[in-house]
Write a structure and sequence with these properties.
404 residues, alpha/beta, Spore Coat Polysaccharide Biosynthesis Protein SpsA, Chain A, six-stranded mixed sheet, 8 helices, 18% helix, globular
Length: 404
Amino acid sequence: MQNIILFDPEARKHLLPLAATRPVGEFRLGILTLREKWERLFRAPVSYITQDYLQNRYPIHIGSDNLVINACIVPDQAAYSLFRTLQTGQALIRHDELLAVRLDEAQFELLVSDEALGNLDGRNLEDDAPITVFSRLWQLNSLNAQALLHDFDLLTRGRKSQPLSDTNRVIGPHPVFLEEGAKAECCVFQTTNGPIYIGKNAEIMEGCLLRGPIAVCDQAVLKMGAKIYGPTTIGPGCKVGGEVARTILFANSNKAHDGFLGDSVIGAWCNFGADSNNSNLKNNYSEVRLWDYAEERFAKTGEQFCGLFMGDHSKCAINTSFNTGTVVGVFANLYGAGFHRNFVPDFSWGGPEAGYRTYRFDEAREVAQAVMARRGKELTELDQAILSRIFADTAVFRTWEKNA
């Protein structure tokens, strides 16, 4: 069996803070994570070449026949068909960027040597080759619609949906697919623009309005009266209420109350207080700039609609307001009236009125342990080591520490 290995390219630095706590292959896009898509396409196990502090949590497995793939490639049938034709020792390259290479166990050491890679049988792809690569946070939103359609087909082809209760109303030509244990009553499913997928043991409470394409993943909950505009992904274990549009929530994050969340990507274990809102469009309709960790500045996105990008374990109190194009790092705890900064560093505590201080590591760890225990999960020693490294690496952005 072919062994699949995903490697984090240099672009990973532009995908912080979401890439701070996970390899890029663990990003959720569509219904599945990138890893899960590759596993289903190749019917083979997937492991990672990632950052040193993440590698113990996500160990690499080297086999006798290894297909090594750039983790920022969107998995689809076109990419699968191209990569599966690679011969041992052959690489695919575009604009001097490695897309994929097939190596036997003895050749694997070539991957860490630029000079040795030059000796491979390299094949340069043209710009119009059917391979989609992302390198910036905001691109996840624009790619989610097609990813939802791809994953819906991948997961449901040849299968029959669980029955949908006749208390619901379906409008449009695309299907609504329910996995085992999914529940929905007295809801409206509008599928004119795409299908709606309801995962195992997920619940759509009474009065919800959904416009596809949408995925409500395993054990996720939509609270009563939620209004969800696609393309939107509600990741496993998430609880969502209010109004959500064109957004991805990775897993186990809560926006359970009224308030608006749009054109955003939210990591895992985040929580939004009641009536919290984000802006996704500037008053003058101009291009949005977004904080880029790699460039240490606000970079042009080319986008008019751009919302909130929040790292794992960050939380905000009731009535919190986020401006257009805001990046919040890992483990921020935010509150107060007025708009927060457009970039809130990792391990920040505070708000516009009181200012910000450092969220002490021991405080953050205790909260994470309590939050995860409520879901039957554990903050392992490996997890704590990752968070400790992020705490140290991001101190440079907590400028108040220098002034103290």
